[in-house]
Amino acid sequence: MSLLGVSILTDTGRALAEGGVTVDLDMTLFVQLGFFLVLLFVLKPTLFDPMMRLFEEREKRIEGTRHEATKEDERSAKALAKYDAICAKGREAGAIERDALRAEGTKREQEILTQVRAEVAQTLEQGRAAIAAETTVARKDLEGEVRALGRETASRVLGREVAS
Fold this sequence. Notes:
Layout: H1 3-18, H2 27-158
């Protein structure tokens, strides 16, 4: 190597050690720039523009779907609120009907109990009257038998016939 080559290597090594970058300006830079510009003008309308339209269309569809989903959420929330209101009205009407039926049942129960109590009281009164009548008949029958049994008992105890 020549002294000049060693000097360039030393300068390059020093520049790299210091963190600097050296750029050689030669024809390859202009060739690469030319390739870049040709590819840019060829690929932009054939690849990049359609891809950008595709991305924009996809973004529009996503936003449209999100908007539709938001509308659907609002619609379902309204339907749920309507459903809850209808259910609340139904529960309220059911409670009113239940209370009315309960009151009617209680009233009917009281009527039946009053009727049954009256029938029981009447049956008891009839039973008491029948018992009283039977008691009176039994006492009359026993009065006649008491005298005869008393005479017979006295006769046995005394050992002789007792006159009435």
